[in-house]
Amino acid sequence: MGSFKTLEEARDYFSKDRFASDNGMTLDELDENHAVCSLTLTERHRNAFGGVMGGAIFTLADYAFAALSNDRTRVTVAQQVSINYLAPAKSGRLIATARYKRDGRNSCVVNVDVTDDSGRDIAQFVGTGFKLWARPSEPKQG
Fold first, then answer.
1. Average pLDDT for residues 16-36, to the nearest whole number?
2. What is the CATH number of domain 7-131?
3. Model pTM?
4. Beta 76-85 vs 34-40: how paired, if at all?
């Protein structure tokens, strides 16, 4: 789980990813090799045609990428990402599972598969992350 001691500690940390958390995305599993995030679809995730907004699917995949590749002591920033939308998401729940393709000293490549709750492939996301040497220190309070 990187430098997180528990899943709850990781959830608390990533709750600061406000766009993801404010839109209902949750961190469900996390260890050194994979992360699972999910989203229960609601009307707020729909586009003008009634389908699930591509940005909602992308954000879920990006959230899983971030959860896997970051920890409390070292920041990983996205250097390049791509997504292929494979099938329309209908309703229910989307699940994004992130796994390392490569986890090097300075960079990583993460594959994220997004499925619906029936196991249907919705999207495939690939992210290349650049690892910064140290997390910027928190500003001191008052």
1. 94
2. 3.10.129.10
3. 0.89
4. unpaired
